[in-house]
């Protein structure tokens, strides 16, 4: 009896600690938790920007922060540090996801990737056409790419909230669609939102990338050693006039996918992405939402600029909420009818519509493109408002439709 007591005494707290650790680990890697964090951060930003303390909100993100080394100094606004520096880590994870999928995931088999690829193309083209059709020519057309993006964490998180009862292939399809969508968004940023490039500065970026390749050739696998050449790559891309976060995508795409025999238990692309995932999901993305979702709603349309802002908001909302699912469904239907591919196992067209509705959650990437498209504060706020309204509506519509599918299946 005494031995049993002495044995069970320390074991009980240890078991409890293990259970807590396991629950925290599941929470950290939970898509639903990431989506909830984004939603809470966006709601906090909206509440703060429309409260009596709204001046402090804008003052915070315009405050300057920097580092100095002797005569050299690098000082930028807090907004820059979030959107241009920290978001590079977000794009690094995106690049690693694309790299992994191209090597051994859904994008490795062309026929398996064809349906989500076609759906993603429709989900980019149709919303862009809807936006262009609804806004007049001129500066407002610069926002055509805003409703083309899908927020991976938010969309997959909403799907996770539906719980069991959905075919596993639906999550794979939605995740693959969103990854391809992000890849297209990266290409759009590089091609259409990087004007006046200083091509000579590409030499600096090339030197940084060369440093990465040299370290890989030497067998250096610790991620921290790549911070310096990665920073040189970031600086070079920034100096060219392109958006510096593209450096994250480049680094992600060149991350090794093979393990060194006898030296590693996981490939760098898996190990680094896994270690960065909680920091991106629970740190960088909510901070981005807090810094960018604060739209002041107090002013009413009273002049031409306000009228233009209203058009931008309505066009983005319509493109995300209606154009996204229409594009996904149309291109998927054409691909299946032409026998290029078939629906994934156990998936029906009702599931495809659910994926289309959830792809209308633009949020992170859409707001990010909006910051590149519009320099005018009023138009940028209008774009953010359209993204937030459409993303929230798409999430609600997806939840309602998903619950209806589950209810019909039980009947």
TrEMBL record:
A single GO BP: regulation of pH
Name of protein: Na(+)/H(+) antiporter NhaA
GO cellular component, as recorded: plasma membrane
MF-aspect GO terms: sodium:proton antiporter activity
Catalytic activity from the UniProt record: Na(+)(in) + 2 H(+)(out) = Na(+)(out) + 2 H(+)(in)
Residues passing through the membrane, by range: 32-49, 114-134, 140-162, 169-193, 199-218, 244-260, 272-291, 311-336, 357-379, 385-403
Signal peptide boundaries: none
Localization, UniProt: Cell inner membrane; Cell membrane
Pfam families noted in UniProt: Na_H_antiport_1
Family: Belongs to the NhaA Na(+)/H(+) (TC 2.A.33) antiporter family.
Membrane topology field: Multi-pass membrane protein
Keywords: Antiport, Cell membrane, Ion transport, Membrane, Sodium, Sodium transport, Transmembrane, Transmembrane helix, Transport
Role description: Na(+)/H(+) antiporter that extrudes sodium in exchange for external protons.
């Amino acid at each position: 009896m005494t031995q049993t007591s002495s044995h069970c005494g320390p074991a009980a707290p240890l078991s409890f600690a293990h259970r807590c650790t396991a629950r925290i680990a599941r929470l950290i890697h939970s898509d639903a938790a990431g989506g909830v964090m984004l939603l809470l951060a966006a709601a906090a930003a909206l509440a703060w920007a429309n409260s009596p303390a709204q001046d402090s909100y804008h003052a915070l993100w315009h405050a300057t922060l920097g580092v100095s080394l002797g005569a050299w100094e690098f000082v930028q606004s807090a907004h820059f540090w979030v959107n241009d520096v920290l978001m590079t880590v977000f794009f690094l994870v995106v690049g690693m996801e694309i790299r992994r999928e191209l090597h051994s995931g859904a994008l490795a088999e062309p026929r398996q990737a064809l349906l989500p690829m076609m759906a993603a193309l429709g989900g980019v083209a149709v919303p862009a056409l809807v936006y262009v059709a609804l806004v007049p020519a001129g500066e407002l057309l610069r926002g055509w790419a805003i409703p083309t993006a899908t927020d991976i964490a938010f969309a997959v998180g909403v799907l996770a909230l539906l719980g069991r009862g959905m075919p596993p292939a639906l999550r794979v399809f939605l995740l693959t669609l969103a990854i391809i969508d992000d890849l297209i968004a990266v290409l759009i940023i590089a091609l259409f939102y990087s004007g006046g490039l200083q091509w000579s500065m590409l030499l600096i970026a090339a030197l940084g990338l060369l440093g990465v390749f040299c370290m890989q050739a030497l067998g250096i696998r610790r991620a921290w050693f790549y911070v310096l050449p990665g920073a040189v790559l970031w600086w070079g891309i920034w100096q060219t006039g392109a958006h510096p976060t593209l450096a994250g995508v480049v680094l992600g795409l060149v991350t090794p996918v093979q393990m060194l025999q006898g030296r590693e238990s996981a490939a760098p692309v898996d190990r680094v992405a896994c270690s960065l995932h909680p920091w991106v999901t629970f740190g960088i993305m909510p901070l981005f939402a807090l810094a960018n979702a604060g739209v002041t709603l107090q002013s009413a349309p009273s002049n031409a600029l306000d009228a233009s802002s209203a058009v931008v908001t309505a066009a983005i909302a319509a493109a995300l909420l209606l154009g996204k699912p229409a594009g996904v469904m149309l291109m998927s239907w054409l691909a299946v009818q032409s026998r290029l591919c078939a629906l994934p196992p156990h998936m029906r067209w009702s599931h495809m519509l659910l994926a289309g509705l959830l792809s209308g959650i633009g949020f992170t990437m859409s707001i990010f493109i909006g910051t590149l498209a519009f320099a005018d504060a009023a138009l940028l706020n209008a774009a953010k408002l359209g993204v937030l309204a459409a993303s929230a509506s798409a999430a609600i519509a997806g939840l309602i439709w998903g619950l209806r599918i589950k209810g019909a299946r039980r009947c």
